[in-house]
Amino acid sequence: MMRSSYQASQADVSVFDTLGKAPSLSNPHALRWYNHIKSLGDERKKLPGEKKIPSSLGAVANGSPAPAPAAKDDDDDVDLFGSDEEDDTEAAKVREERLKAYAEKKSKKPALIAKSSIVLDVKPWDDETDMKEMEAKVRTIVMDGLIWGASKLVPVGYGIHKLTIMCVVEDEKVSVDLLVEKIQDFEDFVQSVDIAAFNKI
């Protein structure tokens, strides 16, 4: 309902008295206003303002028919909230831009290189094998994606030692089987090669 301010006033009381009965359920806002003014009871007399019906409701209050609504002008038919189609198009555009930005960011990020840490046990033929020479031979193996690490001699028994040597390999570049074969190619020094440990990094 029309009112002179956001606070109930005598103008509200005038309209309330003029209506005489509650608006129908088809006008929920008017019904809520009516029930609010009604709930004030005797407090209505104390509301501020002048008790008069707003000019826009004067004709209705005097029993005259309400003015017919103005003819609808096609130019005034403006959808203030936009159509669903426009919203969908805009949302799709924003989503597309975000996906594109994410793809660009991901493409600039360096790919994670899968690596493995391996411990090899290289066993000699006997106790007369020159272990330092054997290790030097093993370290001559050069492969793209292969890095040799620490090593030590571990006693096996009867004066024989095995060479335990670590290395890190890039999984896509280095075949562990091929690496073992290359070590075993030093037949004068190497009897066998075992993989003591294999861990993904």
UniProtKB/TrEMBL annotation:
Keyword Protein biosynthesis: yes
Stretches assigned to the Translation elongation factor EF1B beta/delta subunit guanine nucleotide exchange domain: 115-201
Keyword Membrane: no
Ranges of residues in domain Elongation factor 1 beta central acidic region eukaryote: 80-106
Compositional bias segments (type: Basic and acidic residues): 44-53
Parts forming coiled coils: none
Pfam families referenced in this protein's UniProt entry, alphabetically: EF-1_beta_acid, EF1_GNE
Region: Disordered, residue numbers: 44-92
Swiss-Prot/TrEMBL keywords: Elongation factor, Protein biosynthesis
Biased composition (Acidic residues): 73-89
Alphabetical list of InterPro entries matching this protein: eEF-1beta-like_sf, EF-1_beta_acid_region_euk, EF1B_bsu/dsu, EF1B_bsu/dsu_GNE, Transl_elong_EF1B/ribsomal_bS6, Transl_elong_EF1B_B/D_CS
UniProt similarity note: Belongs to the EF-1-beta/EF-1-delta family.
Protein name listed in UniProt: Elongation factor 1-beta
Protein's organism: Timema podura (Walking stick)
Top-level taxonomy: Eukaryota, Metazoa, Ecdysozoa, Arthropoda, Hexapoda
